[in-house]
Specification:
Strand content of chain A: 15-25%
Strand order of the largest sheet of chain B: 1-2
CATH superfamily of the largest domain in chain A: P-loop containing nucleotide triphosphate hydrolases
Distance between the termini of chain A: 50 Å
Number of strands of chain B: 2
Bound molecules: adenosine-5'-triphosphate, magnesium ion
Radius of gyration of chain A: 24 Å
Structural class of chain A: alpha/beta
CATH architecture of the largest domain in chain A: 3-Layer(aba) Sandwich
Shape of chain A: globular
Oligomer: heterodimer
Structural class of chain B: mainly alpha
Number of helices of chain B: 13
Largest sheet of chain A: 7 strands, mixed
Number of strands of chain A: 23
CATH class of the largest domain in chain A: Alpha Beta
Helix content of chain B: over 70%
Order of helices and strands of chain B: EHHHHHHHHHHHHHE
Number of helices of chain A: 18
Number of domains of chain A: 4
CATH topology of the largest domain in chain A: Rossmann fold
Chain lengths: 513, 348
């Protein structure tokens, strides 16, 4: 699977001179490239570089201001997703678009057949789906309700849906951002099978090792322009990173920690299970000033319960929670904020922001009731806007301005706004739940540096991440969560990644308990 | 066919579609008038003339708009928080009842009577909505059902009172309450013109609601809770308490409709005090896209259609329920237009 020369091979897709402006912002600036049959092209670029916008144009969600799209030699009418689908382009969005209350099969059929015919032809559809699932390694129960599926399974449904519609070109917008490493590996297997059958893939990711592993060619976008194009085998991670941000990026190297007093203590804490996921089962935990505690673990092992507890969304049903020396009795998000807990939530779209609020309104979401944002119940919108502007400038949030609705921001920029909102409140305890998910490498480094800086300034940081590398680089002490229980505390460097992996698989807990 | 969200709707869409909705409404109404055997143009002319064609007509329209502004505001405030208050009718009657009780039974001295009656009415309306909201926040009971049912309970309760304890002994057997004394009646804004201070109060309330929504922390909380309760809760906004406050405001506003009808216009309580002002308030609020100042405009529009259609049907042979059809069509087309500004229909 070497790099292909589009001039020689069969070109399946050609973009010519695509330009897209949002007001004064040029999201795509005269972008041209071609995709050949049977290749995986990776699209790289910082948050807000214009990757999603370009794919939305290609798929017909947006209409380009200039430029044309050709699929299999025929021009694609702009602004019509139906036309793109019919021409054989399938897209798996950055945020999924399935109907939760319908079954997998119904979701796959939805849109292919008129609504009133959904019930008919079901057995034929079922056979085709089973066939596709087998051919491409996309195991999923066709009768399960989509709402009950994990993110990995939902993604498989999205891909199946595209294949069911006979897509020959598949666009994947940050498909691995929400996957566990195992799920990501399974996805790559599927992609390899697809390519072997002559499909073409456009793959967007911020994870350079994935780009190196799956793609044959890499395109780099910066500020809306195509700034580089290389064959994957002629490059490496460093070169790509440099191409992407225009400068070398050094991973943060935390200095020696100087841990201080214990700022938050969990003492034999239990929380109720949620669905088939465990709650916390007798968890002891101490968060110290000036220390980053990394919580490793496979997702769904109680991270959510712990995060909700510390955020104030839920109280313990047994055991004790203490902030400093004082035992917490009335625990709520507001109490947590008042106790100096800063929270970076896992889901920035549903929990961290209000999509149709402006950046200004989102920036003051946790501080709206206090001066200077409010005085005796009256909002001071000018002060709120200034606070937003400060965050935008300081944390490099790329956006048209503070009065933009936040739903229009790229995922990474949304996260930077949340980070700014949390850190500007100078919290003593910071809960960072998957803080760099979906961020570009520059932003990842930036967020991590900010967390280290907060720790150096004396904050206690709890970092929850599925990325073991991230845990190993940042944490002063590490604990592993498995099935609602916590491992003992390991000092930095005490355990190797492989040893931590065993704890993550649940080994060792019985001896420790 | 399916719907697809539009990220940034164009001006052509946001302005053009509502205009199209109005045009479609007029078309449907014209068709109906023609079906009833009348000349459509003439019918419209008569409606407009009946609504604003004379000083008397205009004042009548303003009077009719007054309770609709209150109930429209009540609904708009609640719906912003995604609190589905379908019970403005019950809250209106609660307000009317308390107005009559205090006005006729307590013998308050002149200058105190009206403010106390108004406050008590607000309280009564607020409490009427409080029950359903507490059931919602505490037990998750659907407020659509409870507020709707309360309308019927309240109507029966009022009938009972008017047939029994509250029946006017001088009423010659009619089921109506005793009349309010002079001091307990809302005066006219301009002597000699048949328009009472309830209308001014409604305008003040609209401005007040607008101020609350745009300038206060409560307004911010209400919008946050309405748009994303999960994020609101995470951010420390006390979702339950915000809903309760919203309910108190909403119920209070609806009750003021009852207060102003009794103290400003009718002078006593009958079981047909409101010809469905509470329900029409929903239409008013939706047509105004829940904007409090828009409520004033849409209440005037709706009232104008009712008053105009009344007078038109006296002049021509077209039944008055053309007004209901006009409103229903206007609402349907408007809702469709709003949907289509945010989504487009695509094939495939
Ligand atoms: N509908 C819109 N209206 C206004 N601005 C928009 C709109 N959609 C995107 N933008 C802006 O265009 C720029 C490019 O956004 P895009 O979503 O394409 O970035 P991206 O490269 O996909 O970033 P990420 O890696 O964070 O997903 C951003 O600055 C974004 O705020
Ligand atoms: Mg994107």
């Amino acid at each position: 699977m070497g790099p292909k020369d589009p001039a020689r091979d069969e070109t399946v897709l050609r973009l010519s001179g695509i330009t897209k402006r949002f007001g004064a912002l040029v999201a795509n600036d005269e972008i041209s490239f071609a995709l050949a049959k049977g290749e995986v092209v990776a699209l790289l670029g910082e948050n807000g570089a214009g990757k999603t916008t370009l794919m939305n144009i290609l798929f017909g969600h947006y209409t380009a201001d200039e430029g044309t799209v050709e699929v299999f030699g025929a021009p694609l009418p702009p602004g019509q997703p139906g036309a793109a689908l019919a021409a054989g382009v399938g897209m798996v969005h950055q945020h999924f678009t399935l109907a939760d209350n319908m079954t997998v099969l119904e979701n796959i059929q939805l849109g292919t057949e008129p609504l009133w015919r959904l019930g008919l032809g079901r057995s034929a559809a079922r056979r085709r789906v089973a066939r596709l699932a087998q051919d491409f390694g996309l195991a999923v129960d066709p009768d399960a309700r989509v709402g009950t599926l994990s993110v990995g399974e939902r993604q498989r449904v999205e891909i199946l849906k595209a294949l069911y519609r006979e897509a020959r070109i598949l666009i994947l917008d940050e498909p691995t951002a929400v996957l566990t490493p195992q799920e990501a590996e399974a996805l790559f297997e599927t992609l390899r099978k697809m390519v072997a059958q002559g499909l073409s893939v456009i793959f967007i990711s911020h994870k350079l090792h994935e780009v190196m592993a799956i793609s044959s060619r890499v395109l780099v976008l910066r500020h809306g322009r195509l700034v580089g194009e290389v064959a994957t085998r002629d490059t490496d991670r460093h070169a790509l990173a440099t191409l992407m941000v225009g400068a070398e990026i050094a991973a943060p190297e935390p200095t020696q920690a100087r841990p201080g007093a214990v700022l938050m203590t969990l003492d034999r804490v239990e929380t109720p299970p949620r669905g088939n996921r465990p709650g916390l089962r007798g968890v002891d935990l101490a968060l110290r000033a000036g220390q980053i505690l990394g919580l490793a673990g496979v997702s769904g092992n109680g991270q959510g319960a712990l995060a909700d507890l510390i955020s104030g969304l839920e109280g313990p049903i047994a055991g004790r929670l203490r902030v400093g020396e004082a035992e917490v009795t009335r625990w709520s998000p507001r109490a947590a904020l008042a106790a100096g807990v800063g929270r970076i939530p896992e889901d920035r779209h549903k929990t961290g922001t209000i999509a149709d609020f402006t950046l200004t309104e989102n920036a003051v979401l946790e501080s709206y009731a206090r001066p200077p944002t409010a005085n005796h119940g009256w909002m001071n919108w000018r002060a709120a806007r200034e606070a937003a502007q400060e965050i935008i400038a300081k944390y490099d949030v790329r956006c048209p301005g503070p009065e933009t609705r936040i739903r229009l921001l790229s995922g990474g920029n949304m996260q930077k706004l949340i980070l700014g909102r949390v850190l500007e409140a100078a919290p003593r305890i910071i809960l960072a739940n998957q803080p760099v998910r979906g961020l570009d490498i520059g932003a990842v480094t930036y967020v991590q540096e900010q967390l280290i800086a907060a720790r150096n300034a004396g904050a206690a940081v709890l970092l929850i991440s599925e990325d073991l590398d991230e845990i190993l680089t940042l944490s002063d002490v590490i604990r592993v969560i498995s099935d609602g229980r916590l491992s003992p505390e390991f000092a930095r460097g005490e355990k190797t990644a492989a040893e931590l992996g065993q704890w993550m698989a649940g080994q060792g807990f019985d001896h420790a308990a | 066919m399916r719907l697809e969200p539009i990220a940034a709707p164009s001006h052509a869409r946001t302005l053009g579609l509502p205009a199209l909705a109005i045009a479609a409404t007029v078309l449907v109404a014209a068709l109906l008038a023609a079906l009833a055997g009348a000349n459509p143009l003439q019918t419209f002319g008569l409606i407009v003339k009946g609504a604003v064609g004379s000083k008397f007509a205009t004042l009548e329209t303003l009077n009719r708009a007054t309770p609709l502004i209150f109930t429209g505001l009540a609904v708009a405030v609640a719906f912003r928080a995604k609190l589905w208050n379908i019970g403005a009718e019950a809250q209106l009657y609660a307000g009317a009842l308390v107005t009559v009780l205090i006005g006729t039974q307590m013998g308050l001295p002149g200058p105190l009577a009206l403010p106390i009656m108004a406050l008590a009415a607000v309280l009564a309306g607020a409490l009427t909505l409080l029950g359903p909201v507490l059931l919602k926040t505490r037990l998750g009971v659907d407020e659509v059902v409870t507020t709707l049912l309360l309308n019927f309970i309240m109507a029966l309760f009022i009938s009972y009172l008017l047939e029994g304890p509250l029946k006017d002994p001088m009423g010659m057997g009619w089921p109506k309450s005793p009349a309010l004394p002079r001091d307990a009646r809302l005066p006219r804004i301009v002597e000699g013109l048949r328009l009472h201070w309830g209308f001014a109060l409604a305008l003040i309330c609209a401005a007040g609601v607008w101020l609350i929504q745009t300038r206060t922390t409560l307004g911010y909380e209400i919008r946050a809770v309405g748009q994303n309760p999960q994020a609101a809760r995470f951010a420390g906004i006390p979702v339950g308490r915000v809903l309760v406050k919203t309910a108190l405001i909403s119920g209070g506003l609806a009750a003021l409709a009852g207060f102003s009808e009794v103290a400003g216009l009718k002078g006593n309580l009958t079981s047909d005090l409101s010809p469905g002002f509470g329900y029409t308030g929903i239409i008013v609020a939706m047509l105004a896209l829940l904007h409090p100042l828009g409520v004033v405009v849409s209440a005037l529009f709706v009232a104008g259609i009712f008053v105009g259609a009344d007078s038109m049907s006296r002049a021509a042979e077209v039944p008055t329920y053309i007004a209901d059809i006009l409103l229903a069509a206007a609402l349907l087309f408007m809702v469709l237009a709003i949907l289509l500004t945010r989504f487009r229909v695509v094939r495939g």
